[in-house]
Amino acid sequence: MSGVTDGQSVNAAVSNAAWLAANGATTGVGPVCLAGPSSAPVPSVQEAINVIINGVGGSSTVAPTGYGPLPANMFSASSTHEEALGLIGRLFQAATGHKHTGVDGDGPLVTATAVTGAPMRTYWQQGAPLTAVTGDSKDVSIFMTGLDVSIGPNYAGVVIDTNYSQCVIRDQNHGVIVDANGYEVFGILDYSAPSTFALDFYSMATTGTDPFGAAQPYTFAASANLQWYFKILYDTLGPTGNVVYDPWPTLGSRITTVAASGQSALRGPVTFSQGAGVTLTQVGQNIEIAAASGSTVSSIAASGQSALTGAVTLSAGSGVQLTQTGQNIQIDTRSTGLRTINSQSASAYTFALSDMISASASPLVVFENTAAATATIPTNASVAFPVGAQIDVLRAGTASVYFATASTAITLNSKSSLRSVGAQHVGVSLVQTAANVWSLLGDLTT
C-alpha cells in the first residue's frame, strides 16, 4: 500500500493517515473513492490520478499539485478506474475543455512569465495638483519620488523620451487651457539625472520647431492652479523591445497657411473651409486643394502650352478659329476669304508651308518674272506638307514657270507629263495626294 513503509505498524492511526496523505489529504469518502452524488471537488487532477493508480495496485510519488481542481460530482459511484481516467483526460483536450480560467476543472491562470511577444505600453498617470504656478516651467521632482525612469523603450517607468514625453495640462476644474490665440496649452516633461523633473509649458503655434510639431513656450503670467497627467511605460508581460505609446490627447490645431506644394503635418481635429474659386478633395489622409470649376483665362502664350485647371470655356473672337484635338485646343487666325499674295520674280523658288492653303490662310504664289523660272517641290523630310496640301500658282509674268522636284523620291503627276504653266495670266494648282506624291492640275504646257 502506498505511503506505508516496511516494518511500519498497520493500524488506522498510521496506515490510513499515510495513505490519505499521498492520495487525497482528506478523510472524505467521496473525494478518495471518486464516488457519491454529493462528493466535494477533488483538490487537484494529480490527487485523483494518485487515487486511481493506488486503487489498481500501483504506486504514485507525484505530489498532489497540478492541473485542477476537479468539478464536484464529476464521477459516479459506478465509475470504473478507466472511466475516471477518461473523464480526467477530457479536461486536457482543447475541443472539450482545455482552459486556463482557474475555475474547477480548468488549469490555473496563465502567468506573465509564460507569454512572450507582448509589447510594453504606456498609460496616463495623474500627477499631484500644482498650486500657484507661474512662469514657463515648474519643478515637479518632489512628486516623482520613488518612480522609475524609462531611459529607453525596454525600460519601464516615467516616459522622458523627448518624442513622447508630452503631458496634459488642465486647470483646477480639469478644463482645457488656451493661450491668447486660442491654442491649447500642454506640457513636456524634461528630466535631468539623477532625479530632477521639470514640467515645461508650451502652446501650439504657426512658427517654431520642436519634436511635436509647431509649438512655442507658454508662460503663466498670473498664478494658476493646475492638474496634469504624464505617461508611464509599463511591462505587460516581459521586456520585448516592442513599445506602444498611448495616443496623445486631442490638441486643437489652428492652421493659417498651408504650403502651395509638399506636405503639411496637422495635429488634432482640423476643419478646412473652401473659399471662392477653390475645391477641397479628401483622398485618404490627404487633402487636395485645386482651383474650382469655371476658371477663366485672361491670356495664353502665342506659342507653347498653357495648362488650364477646372472647367474652362474658350470663345473664338473676331479673326480667330479654335480647333480641339483631344485635350489640346489649337488657336489659328480665321480665314477672311481674301487671298494672300506671295509675289516671286527670281529665277528659282522652293515652296514653303506658308504657301499651303489652310483654314486660316489662302495664299497665292504669283510669278512676275520676265525670265524663265523654276518652282521646286521639296521633300516631306525637309518641309512637312500634310497629305491633301494644296498650293495655288499664278503666272503673271511673261516668262515661263517650270515645276521641278527636289529629289527623285518625289513623284509629280500631270497630264502628258507636262510641267509648265500654259501661258501668262494662267493659274494652276499642286495637290499632295500621298507623302511625296503630287499632282499638277490646270492649263499646262511643255
Instruction: Please count the helical segments.
Output: 4
Radius of gyration: 50 Å
Taking the alpha carbons of the first and last residues, their distance comes to: 142 Å
Task: Let me know the number of strands.
Answer: 26
What is the average of the pLDDT values? 75
SSE succession? HHHHEEEEEEEEEEEEEEEEEEEEEEEEEE
Coarse morphology: elongated
Low-confidence stretches: 23-32, 35-39, 208-212, 250-256
Estimated share of beta-strand residues? 25-35%
| Quaternary state of the chains | single chain
Class per helix and strand makeup: mainly beta
Q: Main sheet, how many strands, which sense, barrel?
A: 11 strands, mixed
Helical proportion? under 10%
What's the structural blueprint in terms of helices and strands?
Elements lengths: L11 H12 L5 H5 L11 H11 L25 H10 L29 E7 L3 E6 L1 E3 L9 E2 L6 E3 L6 E6 L13 E8 L3 E9 L10 E3 L2 E15 L8 E2 L33 E6 L2 E6 L28 E6 L2 E6 L6 E5 L3 E3 L12 E5 L5 E5 L12 E6 L5 E5 L5 E3 L6 E2 L4 E9 L2 E6 L1 E2 L1
Parallel strand pairs: 1-11, 4-5, 16-18, 17-19, 18-20, 19-21, 22-25
Antiparallel strand pairs: 1-10, 2-10, 3-8, 5-10, 6-7, 6-10, 7-8, 8-9, 12-13, 14-15, 20-24, 23-26, 24-25
Helix pairs in contact: 3-4
Describe the structure.
Helix 3 (45-55) runs antiparallel to helix 4. The protein is 9% helix and 31% strand. It has helices spanning 12-23, 29-33, 45-55, 81-90; strands spanning 120-126, 130-135, 137-139, 149-150, 157-159, 166-171, 185-192, 196-204, 215-217, 220-234, 243-244, 278-283, 286-291, 320-325, 328-333, 340-344, 348-350, 363-367, 373-377, 390-395, 401-405, 411-413, 420-421, 426-434, 437-442, 444-445. It has four helices and 26 strands. Among the domains are: 12-90, no CATH class; 120-244, no CATH class; 340-445, Jelly Rolls (Sandwich), CATH 2.60.120. The chain is mostly beta strands. The N and C termini lie far apart (142 Å). Mean pLDDT is 75; it is low at 23-32, 35-39, 208-212 and 250-256. The strands form six sheets. Strands 1, 2, 3, 4, 5, 6, 7, 8, 9, 10 and 11 form an eleven-stranded mixed β-sheet that branches. It has a six-stranded mixed β-sheet with strand order 16-18-20-24-25-22, with no helix packed on it.
